[in-house]
Amino acid sequence: MQPQSTVQVMGIDAGGTMTDTFFVRSDGRFVVGKAQSNPGDESLAIYNSSEDALAHWDRTVDDVYPELVTCVYSGTAMLNRILMRKGLDVGLICNRGFEQIHSMGRALQSYLGYALEDRIHLNTHRYDEPLVPVSRTRGVTERTDVQGKVVIPLREDEVRRATRELVEAGSQAIVICLLQSHKNESSEQRARDIVREELKKLKADIPVFASVDYYPSRKESHRMNTTILEAYGAEPSRQTLKKVSDRFRKHGAKFDLRVMATHGGTISWKAKELARTIVSGPIGGVIGSKLLGEALGDENIACSDIGGTSFDVALITKGNFAIKSDPDMARLVLSLPLVAMDSVGAGAAASCVWTPTASPSSLARTLLAIASAPAGRKAVSTPFRFPTVTWCWAT
Questions:
Q1: How are beta strands 258-260 and 70-75 bridged, if at all?
Q2: CB 84 within 8 A of CB 102
Q3: Which of 154, 184, 281, 329 has the highest Cβ tally under 10 A?
Q4: Rounded CA gap, 225 and 204, in Å?
Q5: pTM, entire model
């Protein structure tokens, strides 16, 4: 009996309902495993899925994990966290007089994802609940003009007071985003240093996110939303990925866990700008579809991914996919390079009927709640009726 080839590559698709793993040997053969997702411990779902896959080769994770050269993770946990508003309690420091800039949003955020007939009628427009409420937003005096010249210096005492108030308000992370900081970062960097000094005095272990450290780009709403997203959704996801990496190490793995990023490449789970992985699951599907199309000789491909918690669509035309520089995701405008696609939080088993009072966000949260429930526990109190698309079964 010839010895089996070593297993070199592992792929992970951690969906809202099921977690799939994909192992490839050096001779090109592969196996696929599946296990129910575990939102409380994603590393356990990956372990169970790995065991299911490797059983086909009569091997275990303790045998295979040490052989792996690389592993790429993709999932929808961060996107689901944003859609369901289950991120960290974030505090925001911005310019005085602009405290409501995040809650107001750009006008187009009130109709993102709407059909044309709903876009043209203002009475159908609805803003989603902001990631940071006004009650945890503080304005400080400072102004930098569009050329990057500081015309009103930063009032440092106001920054210190704002920090104390945000800590008292229960903030688990603090975001700093000042106007025109992408043209001159000095005021925002000074505000960041003051916040850290004040947190140290208060003995508060709270991460600080300054937009110039993460996404120093034009367009104020895009930059603010993306930096808030980093604190609100990416930071909890980092803890999840650390747990996954630790479990790999526990079973002898030596590779650095990689994550699919919004631009179509991969980044380390330790990367600073982890918000770039908000839709890592569907992005991986687009990249795979492109490679499959090249092998089959097809240049124009419609890609779709119906998962347990979202339905995603992308197009490949003339062998290429488009990348947006100022995309929207989860009904937020962002400053991230993103493979052009549309995502709707409605992939799960659910009963629903559209009503004028039902906003897209409320529908998405209802479907996500149903899809995220453990198997056999799909009963969720909801005003919606009539069956729709389902990932596991149809009525």
A1: parallel
A2: no
A3: 281
A4: 24
A5: 0.80
Tell me which residue has tokens 């210096």.
153
Residues 6+ apart with CB under 8 A from 146: 180, 183
Q: Report the first-to-last Cα separation within the chain, whole angstroms.
A: 49
C-alpha separations of 76 from 210, 271, 275, 327 in Å? 25, 18, 12, 17
Tokens 């088993």 locate to 349
Tokens describing residue 280 = 């890592």
Half-sphere exposure in the Cβ direction for 335 (13 Å, CA)? 20
Closest CA to 280 of 288, 373, 272: 288
State both tokens at 374: 């453990």
Q: What angle do CA 279, 281, 282 make, to 5 degrees?
A: 80
Alpha-carbon gap, residue 276 to 88, rounded angstroms: 18
Question: Concatenated DSSP letters for 269-323?
Answer: TT-S-GGGGTTHHHHHHHHHHHHHHHHHT---EEEEEE-SS-EEEEEEBTTB--E
**Whether the Cβ atoms of residue 81 and residue 90 lie closer than 8 Å to each other:** no
Residue 134 · residue 100 · CB < 8 Å: yes
Q: Convert the pLDDT of each residue in 96-115 to its tens digit.
A: 999 998 988 887 888 777 77
Specify the long-range contacts of residues 98-101, CB closer than 8 Å, at least 24 apart.
Answer: 98/139, 98/179, 99/134, 99/137, 99/138, 99/139, 100/134, 100/137, 101/220, 101/221, 101/224
Q: What residues have CB less than 8 Å from 249, skipping those under 6 apart?
A: none
- CA 155 to chain CA centroid, Å, is 34
Q: What is the largest CA-CA distance in the chain?
A: 78
For tokens 């992308």, the residue is 314
Q: What are the pLDDT digits (tens) for 259-274? A: 999 888 899 999 988 8
CB of 217 within 8 A of CB of 335?
yes
